[in-house]
Amino acid sequence: MGKATGFMEYKRETPKERPPKERIKDWKEFKNKFSEEAAKIQGARCMECGIPFCHSGLEIGGMVSGCPVNNLIPEWNDLIYKDKWEEAVKRLLKTNNFPEFTGRVCPAPCEGSCTVELNDPAVTIKANEYQIIEKAFAEGWIKPEPPEKRTGKSAAVVGSGPAGLAAADQLNKLGHKVTVYERQDRIGGLLVYGIPNMKLDKELVLKRRLDIMEAEGVEFITEIEIGKDLSLEALENNFDAVVLTGGATKPRDLEVPGREAAGVYFAVDYLKANTKHILGDQNEDYISAEDKDVIVIGGGDTGTDCAATAIRQGAKSVNQFEIMPKSPSERQADNPWPEWPKTLKVDYGQEEAIEVFGSDPREFLIMTEKIMTEKIDGEKVVSGVKTVKINWERNDENRFVPIEKPGTEKIWSADLILIAMGFLGPEKTLIEKAGIEQDRRSNVNADYGDFRTNVKGVFAAGDMRKGQSLVVNAIDEGRKAAREVDKYLHVPFTKPIYGN
After folding, report:
1. In this protein, which residues make up the domain named FAD/NAD(P)-binding (predicted)?
2. Could you tell me if residue 429 is inside a domain?
3. Residue 262 burial (CB < 10 Å; 0-12/13-18/19+)?
4. Does residue 128 share a domain with residue 11?
């Protein structure tokens, strides 16, 4: 695929991002596109490998390897190299409902399993995907295509994140009447309130897709929480099937002295409040980092998003704590291809911190012992954080545990602490009221590939079933759950539309 010798002739190049010094002044997306000629050259680097692991979607070593939605990557790389862009977008949309989302926010496990990556930097798969879908929108190739025929069957989708939207989109294309319920005031789930605007523009990118889905017949209902404002039983009585895609929204808390002080927030609440502010809401819950010393506890993507948001708000300082060790700069022997490379990455938030403060904000192998507080007008308020450095060692049960290093205690100044330590699973209100079984990790108990819960006609997909994961995994789950719902509704004239 691509040019037979392209991977030998051309080097990997990625689109130039907006410079940190410029982009921290606004909330616009920081990524740029290739020129079409540059994209064609990068497409030419895709080699004729016998087994393209890039679209395998396998789980190896506890991590995804290759594309979970099985994107037909070599095919559309070949097509853009040959300047067949309209054909390329058709191949892309066969497996992915929302490449404009994954082309922006996916960590690209496909690139970690690219065959070229064995010896040279991987093909720019993510950038090529972004290029294809944005050209398709610009050319007017993406437009509403309502189903020609309705089946008379209906489905309710609970939750409007990537899994819910993918399930709704697929079911609607199959001719079923789909209604999506969202408890927030906007549709999009984590796409709107969990991912900041500089990574995914809400007014342009998200709204553009939602408008198309509405024009195709999907109904969106906001500010209705199923299990609280409306029972699951009511949905069962009014729809032929229900798909639960409420996400894994219960954040992991930090259980240390001083946690209750004013100035300590979960990352998701901080990011949501900031997005609402950007979108023009009169938001009483807005949290500003302006002129504050900010500590972000957690080293993942959400922690990075918090750091980047605080910088744009005008933070005085930003530090990011990570309890795990610093990753190596290159693959290690115990992390072979095609596993996801567990190497150190400097993400956009760290780049911006380096530009503003002169150093990477991350501290590794560090544990928070206590949140320091002071009384201001009778209220206990954050004043700092006490930490200690650690090592990971095996205990008597042969499990790795953090061991404190004596003499490494430190007090950090802090006015704002953001907890970005991941999520523990779905909230329980709906699950317990409806008698839905949970697995040992508290997720909804439904097998992958089947997606049925213990309640007849009720399915579950995405983080609510799988646990906290990637946007691309959620899209995969939503698509495949829709396929199983369609089988359950057993409409004889429905034609399959799945690319995997």
Report:
1. 155-478
2. yes
3. exposed
4. yes
User: Could you say which of 88, 104, 139 is where a domain stops?
Assistant: 139
* Spatial separation of the C-alpha atoms in residues 351 and 346, rounded to whole Å: 6
19 Cβ contact partners less than 8 Å away, ≥ 6 residues apart: none
pLDDT tens for each residue of 369-416: 999 999 999 999 999 999 999 999 999 999 999 999 999 999 999 999
Look at residues 135, 113, 114, 132 and name the one whose alpha carbon lies nearest to residue 123. 114
Question: Does 85 lie in the same domain as 28?
Answer: yes
Q: Strand runs (DSSP E) across 223-354, as ranges?
A: 241-244, 250-251, 264-266, 293-297, 317-322
**496 domain-assigned:** no
What are the respective helix, strand and coil percentages of the chain, to the nearest 5?
Answer: 35, 20, 45
Helix or strand (DSSP H, E) at 389: strand 379-394
Question: Of 97, 127, 95, nearest to 114 (Cα)?
Answer: 127
Overall domain count for the chain = 3
Rounded to two decimals, what is the model's pTM? 0.95
What's the angle, vertex CA 95, arms to CA 91 and CA 97, rounded to 5?
105
- Phi, psi (deg, nearest 5) at residue 315: -60, 145
Domain limits at 441? Answer: 154-249+424-489
